[in-house]
């Protein structure tokens, strides 16, 4: 049986493509293409650029994990045998994270909550639920991995948001 901290590390490492995809739109705001996906229902800030770059970022991170796995690096914390999976898993985790975030934005707009305003706990869990659900098309992790992601991800999200705020990448702390 895996120790608690090893379980956390394994879950977070497995979900890195989704985390990277979720952060990617913030990192490419400087690129001028800002075409909204569905302005009326999702707002101005959910763009095709963010969806495409974020999904691709999930694939790139997955390929990096696969390469590291082949060389025995991070082998002990790898949840899956990366040799058995294609880039599709990384792309699905990334796309799922962004779709989950977009669904949450849709319901945020319906509740008249402005972009950037907090909607706890959905702001911190939307991408996790989306990434896990879409990732199920290729791989279904054990329930304890999903539970760890649901518990740990809000803390990681808050920390990443704070760093983004301090670096002036984000306008809000959360």
Give structural notes.
- With 174 residues, this protein is an all-alpha fold.
- It has one domain.
- It has 7 helices and no strands.
- The chain has helices at 4-14, 16-27, 39-42, 48-70, 88-110, 122-135, 143-166.
- α1 (4-14) packs across α7 and α4 packs antiparallel against α5.
- The longest helix has 24 residues, at 143-166.
- The N and C termini lie far apart (35 Å).
- The relative contact order is 0.16.
- The mean pLDDT is 88.
List keywords for this structure.
64% helix; 174 residues; 7 helices
Distance between the termini: 35 Å
Rg is 16 Å
| Mean pLDDT across residues | 88
Strand content: under 5%
- Number of separate domains: 1
Shape: globular
If helices are DSSP runs of H or I spanning 4 or more residues, what is the number of helices?
7
> Percentage of helical residues?
55-70%
Order of helices and strands: HHHHHHH
Q: Which spans of ≥5 residues are poorly predicted at pLDDT below 50?
A: none
Structure described in brief:
The protein is an all-alpha fold and 174 residues long. Helix content is 64%, strand content 0%.
Task: Set down the secondary structure blueprint.
Layout: H1 4-14, H2 16-27, H3 39-42, H4 48-70, H5 88-110, H6 122-135, H7 143-166
């Amino acid at each position: 049986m895996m120790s608690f901290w090893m379980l956390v590390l394994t879950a977070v490492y497995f979900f890195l493509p989704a985390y990277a995809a979720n952060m990617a739109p913030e990192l490419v705001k400087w690129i001028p293409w800002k075409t909204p996906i569905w302005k009326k229902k999702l707002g101005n800030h959910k763009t095709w650029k963010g969806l495409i770059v974020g999904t691709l970022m999930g694939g790139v991170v997955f390929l990096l994990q696969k390469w590291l796995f082949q060389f025995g690096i991070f082998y002990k914390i790898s949840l899956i045998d990366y040799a058995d999976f294609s880039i599709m898993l990384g792309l699905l985790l990334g796309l799922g994270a962004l779709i989950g975030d977009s669904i949450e934005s849709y319901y945020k707009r319906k509740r008249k909550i402005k972009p950037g305003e907090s909607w706890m706990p959905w702001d911190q869990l939307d991408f996790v639920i989306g990434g896990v659900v879409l990732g199920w098309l290729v791989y279904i992790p054990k329930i304890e991995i999903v539970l760890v992601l649901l518990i740990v991800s809000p803390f990681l999200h808050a920390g990443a948001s704070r760093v983004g705020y301090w670096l002036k990448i984000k306008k809000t702390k959360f």
